[in-house]
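hey can u check if this looks right to u? its 93 residues, i copy pasted from the old doc so theres a chance i mangled smth
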Amino acid sequence: MDQLSHLHQTHSAIVKRLKRADGHLRGVIEMIEAGRPCLDVAQQLHAVEKAIAQAKKTLIQDHLDHCLEEVVGPLTRDRRRSIDEFKEIAKYL
């Protein structure tokens, strides 16, 4: 597959989320440089971390839902169950 075929519907939302996290991270740097309280900095870092983790989770789920389906193609019910279970357990990553 070429790179263009890897664009999925969720990618624009992922980019938007990451840009927001980038802005928050820059704000955290400014907070540290300004000597803001550690609790405030830690709370903002936690928010950045969660935003990035959610972007990663969305990207992985999107990949499993689309790219994996293209690779495996049509499957018997038993084999389909294995793929579905894999996709379900991957949500806990």
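Residues 38-72 form the longest helix (35 residues).
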